[in-house]
# Entry
Amino acid sequence: MTPRPPSLPPSSDRDAGPSRRNLFGRLLAASAAALAWRSATAPAKADAAAIPRVAYHLADADKVNFVLGNIENHIAGEGGPDKVHIVLVVHGPALSFFETRKATPDVGRRLSRLASAGVGLAACGNTMQAQKLGLSDLLPGFVRVDEGGVVRLARLQAEGYAYLRP
# Structure
């Protein structure tokens, strides 16, 4: 028998393969990694049952009808108004399209249906002040957002709302 070099102990792990301790540690690490990966990729049951929350941002006057159509389609696509919570935040030039004296009958009907379906309607307080408007000047359903439209949008995002600006 050939003597072992003095640098290697007689029962080296290299000769005997992985020890039980190493094997157990590796299995434990692999199991923990698999569990962490599954938790990160699979939605929790509570999240899967949660109703999506979406904030629509409308500032451009030329997109009023487009955004109203997006919201109508969104509600239909989710399966009805009880399947999604939507807030429409309006500021800038788009707000004038929701003035009672300027709104078209079509915009009035569509907005009324959306409000009845539970869509939140928020008008920027800064825009209202700049345009010298009160809530009574707007179509029914709007609330005044005193902190401003963009601040409201940022807060909705912080609360977990998806942000859409079509």
In short: The first strand starts at residue 53 and ends at 58. Residues 51-164 form a domain with the Hypothetical Protein Ychn; Chain: A, fold (CATH 3.40.1260.10). Confidence is low (pLDDT under 50) at residues 33-42. The chain has two domains: 16-44, 51-164.
